User: Fold this.
Amino acid sequence: MNDFIDFISFKNPTVQVVVLGTVLIAACSAMVGTYTYLRKRTLVGDAVAHAIFPGICLGFMLSGSKNPLYLLIGAIIVGWIALLLMDALVAKTKLKTDTALAYILTFFFGIGSVLMSYIQKSGNASQSGLNDFLFGKAANMVLADLYVFGVTSILLLFMVLVFFKQFKLISFNPEFAASIGLNVKSYNFLLTTMTVVAVSIGIQAVGVVLMSALLITPATTARLWTHKLSKLMLLAGLFGALAGILGAYVSFTATNMPTGPWFVVFLTCFAVISIFFAPKSGLISRYQLQITNKRKINQENILKVTFQLKEKGLTRVTREDYVKKRGFVTRNLELGIKRLKRKGLLEEENNYIQLTIQGETEAKRVVRLHRLWELYLTKRMNFKEDHIHGGAETIEHIITPELEKELLTELDYPTLDPHKSNIPY
Assistant:
């Protein structure tokens, strides 16, 4: 309990460094990773994360210390070499991108493991804690780390904001970007460099093994909540930062507990919650939408049948008439009639059902859309009259008022459908 109070109070200088550094690193990596996700290069981040491991080892071996600046420079250089080799393998050989990624990932990570073994046997006292880069250890972050990783994160966030429009164009439509004079290759180079740098600083928080989760999971989670890029990036940064704080807390309070696995656990929790509860895209919302659509279709079919029976002179309809005309399931029919009565579209007296004035207007709309679409299929799409009913039964429920106006204009406000039935207005 005391650890929790110390952590949330932010009075402890160590906690201040850890939280601020983790939030900056996580938010930066998540926002840069959004472009990696949108460009369908999710595995590139994983390959780079594993490839920079030998760069960290070389930075330590050449400098003789765990100075974060040297480690970062080594990671960036080796990360770029890995990307260049991967592109060369794809361009010069018959290897596919995923195969080249696998080669680069395993080759460089293997070299990193060899170098780490050599360092551990070298007897250098400064090596302590270097293997934390495998799984991350945010609680080990000191002020020098914050200066290097924090400033780099702020710089990356600044570049994301400055080049937002350019990165947006090359991510969604590089051909259009090139056609308006944008130097796509230069911006691709810049964005790739930013990805390498983001991965290089992110390993302090989650480590080499799990870095791809920090790049991709916040973006995929945010994608469930919004379709707008600016909001997506903001949410991705928020998810990353929140997971960073929680992961740092566990790493800070639990002995020998790496940050990376807990970081991924919290990110996964956010993703699972979003999968179920995100508006529009969540499973629960989609299920509710399906139920709503089924109810809407059922009610519109009841209104349509009521109007069709009225056209034949049957102004007062029984439940048996509905079943004979369309074969309604009894339960669906009862629920539909109940809801339509509650909306004031149907009224019932002595088990006889008829349309209200408002209900007749709505019923005419449904029938009109059905018959307009049948006419459009025969006149403009050259469908035969006996092949159009099923399609119209589906389409009539999703035709918008704007599309209805276009149909009326296209067909010149017709009065009869292909079966010579009146089109009600």
User: Anything to note?
Assistant: The first helix runs from residue 2 to 9. Residues 360-411 form a domain with the Diphtheria Toxin Repressor; domain 2 fold (CATH 1.10.60.10). The radius of gyration is 31 Å. The mean pLDDT is 86.
